[in-house]
Amino acid sequence: xxxxxxxxxxxxxxxxxxxxxxxxxxxxxxxxxxxxxxxxxxxxxxxxxxxxxxxxxxxxxxxxxxxxxxxxxxxxxxxxxxxxxxxxxxxxxxxxxxxxxxxxxxxxxxxxxxxxxxxxxxxxxxxxxxxxxxxxxxxxxxxxxxxxxxxxxxxxxxxxxxxxxxxxxxxxxxxxxxxxxxxxxxxxxxxxxxxxxxxxx
Length: 201
Known about the structure:
Blueprint: H1 2-20, H2 25-39, H3 45-57, H4 62-98, H5 102-106, H6 109-136, H7 141-159, H8 166-200
Helix pairs in contact: 1-2, 1-4, 2-6, 3-4
């Protein structure tokens, strides 16, 4: 009974996220964070940052990947199923309904203006999510340096109108992080070996 209640809670939470969040992916981050961390306390802020990194690095929409991971953490495989179904069902039902009369629907004046207003708000939601995530990241020399370099690269490529997929930024960031880890690992290993040899003498 407790497990069914948890599954139903997962479904309702992600259904609400999917129903009331416009803009998809990045725009949903702030809403997911508020519902999952601040209200439910299912995961920590640090783990949420890892979830976003994993969700963005794997195929599929960010919100769906996040729901699948969080659902599995809370209630296993069925948790993944219910959370994922909850987050995709609202948009599926709405788009399915709109598809019957989309051509007429999109040309209605008030609908057109409503979409323009939504687009403006989506920009704010994405910016807000980025600022909140940045504030939660540990302020180390490595993180700050990588953040600044990425920002400079993004602005430069945008100004030069160079088409460079965001997935490459993610892969390059992951590769740099791995290299830094390996350097630190082997450095510590060599230091430890020297200390052991010195102790034996």
